[in-house]
Amino acid sequence: MVNQVVVRIAAERIMNGGLNPKTNEVYLLDDITNPDYRVAVEDYILNATEGI
């Protein structure tokens, strides 16, 4: 089970060019290694992006 708060934070950082706290580099979708979280973040981004 994924934590929706974590999903929202990760997705917002990815969409806004925020930093990955582990690497101090721009957060990328590829930085998410857990498949469940990756799918949840992808879904969040698709739902939050207008025009898709």
Q: Care to give the gist of this entry?
A:
It is built from two helices and no strands. It has 52 residues and is mostly helical. The model has no long low-confidence stretch (mean pLDDT 93).
- Write down the overall mean pLDDT: 93
Uncertain runs are none
The run of helices and strands is HH
Strand residue content? under 5%
Q: Using DSSP, what is the number of strands?
A: 0
Cα radius of gyration in angstroms: 11 Å
Shape call: globular
Distance between the termini: 26 Å
- Secondary-structure-based class equals mainly alpha
Helix segment count? 2
Describe the largest sheet: none
Helicity range of the residues? Answer: 40-55%
Description:
This protein starts with a helix and ends with a helix. It has 2 helices and no strands. The chain is an all-alpha fold and 52 residues long. 50% of the residues lie in helices and 0% in strands. Helix 1 packs across helix 2. The protein is globular.
List keywords for this structure.
52 residues, mainly alpha, 0% strand
Topology:
Elements: H1 4-15, H2 35-48
Helix pairs in contact: 1-2
